[in-house]
Amino acid sequence: MAKHKRPDSLTALQRAIGTRISWARELVMPNQSECARLLGVDASTLNKIERGDRAPSVFLIAALSNRLRVSTDFLLKGVLNGRTDEELALRLAALHPELVLQRQDMAPSTDRNTSSDIPDPPKRPDEEIH
């Protein structure tokens, strides 16, 4: 047994990843057992991952991304990438409108890959926010 309880934020993240894996898998291959067999994992393992009871390994995320034809960004962060996830995005939006609402509610990312301290230009009131 672990000495320290896992932070709730990590538990929530694990469940969200499982949900996104489940959504993508259901669209591509509805049979969970068949998907698990093709991935080389036990069906109970994939079931636990989709329920959020178990964290997927980085290797399984890569295999799922390839097998389900979806980006790792979608599986891990819920971010749909342009042309990579275009077909999936349309199908998911039809089945899970909350996913679209989640994307609209997201604040601009503060995670930047540049070391620049130059602030973003101010938004004009007439600009649409996407």
UniProtKB/TrEMBL annotation:
<feature type="compositionally biased region" description="Basic and acidic residues">
    <location>
        <begin position="120"/>
        <end position="130"/>
    </location>
</feature>
<dbReference type="GO" id="GO:0003677">
    <property type="term" value="F:DNA binding"/>
</dbReference>
<feature type="domain" description="HTH cro/C1-type">
    <location>
        <begin position="32"/>
        <end position="75"/>
    </location>
</feature>
<dbReference type="InterPro" id="IPR010982">
    <property type="entry name" value="Lambda_DNA-bd_dom_sf"/>
</dbReference>
<dbReference type="Pfam" id="PF01381">
    <property type="entry name" value="HTH_3"/>
</dbReference>
<dbReference type="InterPro" id="IPR001387">
    <property type="entry name" value="Cro/C1-type_HTH"/>
</dbReference>
<protein>
    <recommendedName>
        <fullName>HTH cro/C1-type domain-containing protein</fullName>
    </recommendedName>
</protein>
<feature type="region of interest" description="Disordered">
    <location>
        <begin position="101"/>
        <end position="130"/>
    </location>
</feature>
